[in-house]
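Q: Two folds, back to back.
A: First:
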Amino acid sequence: MKWKTLQHNGILFPPDFESKGIKIKIKGENVALNLLQEEMIYQWSKKKDAPKPGATEKYVEDPIFQKNFVSDFAKTFNGKFKNLQYSDVDFSQGYKLADKEKEEKELMTKEEKKSLAIKRKEIREEMKAKYGKGVIDGKEVEIGNYMAEPPGIFMGRGEHPMRGRYKPRVTSKDVTLNLGKEANIPEGEWGKIVHDKDSMWIASWMDILTQKRKYVWLADTAGIKQERDQAKYDKAKNL
């Protein structure tokens, strides 16, 4: 069961990171950070109090978590800091910022929290109206999770060997879109445009850490998807 026409607006990307003025020292040396490096330090700092499930230590106290993060962080300096160790990096400014943001959040009044929640809801609804729907064979359909995963630190489960690795930001250049041949291509520098009429996904990209493809699918409520699932069920039933 193939679709004939497919139109959508691509996927939503998390907001770009804005500099927060974080400065660090590496081996006692003041180091100027580019935007990626500062974002990595910010993400690490926000995990400073995160407890590790089933353990007495925090994530940032886990040697493997530390080693994996620092290894990825060191790669951003193009060989300047070889054999960088966790103890070589002074995270204190990042930690102070994380504490300050946490305190400011806790001091918000009920009215401020309510106002913020309303604003976030309005933004979610606006984004859903743009990215959460598509048109397939002339019928409007809902799209599943239409946002690319945000960058951040891979937490993993249990003793996952990649815990602490940094998940880089997904950009439009990383994404393949599945569209109808006559469809308008959404604004952006997309990695690739395909016309796979057999597939129910609208976008995909490679997960750098796992080396597995991630997909954005049509929602289960989409008529053509339900019809295809029913056809598969009927075929299996008749075997």
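A: Second:
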Amino acid sequence: MISITAKKREPGNASEDRAASLIPGVLYGPEIKPISVSLDYNTFDKLYNEAGEATLIDFFIEGEKDPTKVLIQDVERDPIKQIFTHIDFRQIKMGEEMTATVPLNFIGEPEAVKILGGTLITSLDTVDVRCLPNDLVSHIDVDLTVLKTFEDFISVSGLKLPAGITVDDSLEALVVKVIPPMTDDQFKALDESQVGDVSTVAVDGEKKDGEETAEGAEAVDEKKKEEKKD
């Protein structure tokens, strides 16, 4: 079982934690009140690369003997540096059905791409599932070799699910397919369709009536985030 140890922290010192190479976070669940915690950045980075968001974790708090079974529920990153800024851990009750978002792992090469020169189009890269905690898997494999023609596709109903896993998403939802090669005219038409209406674009920081400037909106949003995390 993968595990990690965190320290309890006082709400309101999230900025100090980040300055000390710690990540502020919160632990919550059906049997515990929310607990503000902080984690070593490098330790969590390694754990996240290994566990992702669909693996049960033994969550230890310094000074306490017994761990709490958790999932990484939410990860926030700095939009520019892409470093972790806040983590939510959700307590999981063993023996009770749970929900999770599981990534899809695409394997193999479609003949419709390799031989026919088509382009692989992925509509879903995760699925929402229900299962008992012991049945949770870190990913679900999707075999792309079944895509032999441009008429072939894989929907949610076509996924090969491990025992004990039930999908919460629509069974008719498209997961992946291959489309025929596009002609030069089709590419040109696609490019032209993506050209926006320049009349809606503000110039050099101008704002339209009733709109906030980007800087003002970001400042308000950042303040709300800090209030939530602290």
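Q: And?
A: DSSP finds five helices and 13 strands in the chain.
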